Amino acid sequence: MNPSSSVLLTDLYQLTMLQTYVEQGMEEPAVFEFFVRKLPPNRGFLLAAGLEQALEYLETLRFLEWELDWLKTGGRFPASFTDYLARLRFTGDVHAMPEGTVFFPNEPVLRVIAPLPQAQLVETRLINLLHFQTVIASKAARLVLLAQGKPLIDFGMRRAHGAEAGTLAARASYMAGFSGTATVLAGAQFGVPVYGTMAHSFVQAHTDETDAFERFARSHPDNVVLLLDTYDTEAAAEKVVAL
User: Is 111 left (phi over 0), alpha (psi -120 to 50) or beta?
Assistant: First the structure.
């Protein structure tokens, strides 16, 4: 089971509203738009991101057997409704800004045109995918502008709010102009260039700091990055110069 791909990654009220729509025959086309009402203070623009994951979600949307069984066991939804969900597929149209597009308040970033039950069901996950990556990409773009050509690397996985957040943040920041990421999965999954240094634990695993530097350099002669601040930054710098 991959929780991030489950159709149950939604709010309960989407399903309760969906049941009423179906029971009342309310399946006419509806238009849902993702947009931002206003920018935070000192923010001049936002950068659209997350479209690829949003489209993948819509293209593969379907209720799996275990998801339907769980909905049935709760006693909240009748069998006629879960039977409807078993057949449900997304058949609507999507209009969206290309990823990396600069946008401003009240501009539709993504528009879904679909039968009302479908458009309602996908709202939560689409907002989730677009909002998070747009936040990261917008912040990353401002950092790229401030860096004025200096390379920027994402090292955020260990403090990210979960595995999906860590990999998608690496993707969004790279799209916004970062040079790469330390997250290996983001490299394998999205083609983001991967970078790495060394940890304090590596230096501490050796009895001598110089020994740690020399051994690392021998293992990685074409990509030597040495950490200087485990004990004494200035002393470590002198050791590196002496190598």
Answer: beta
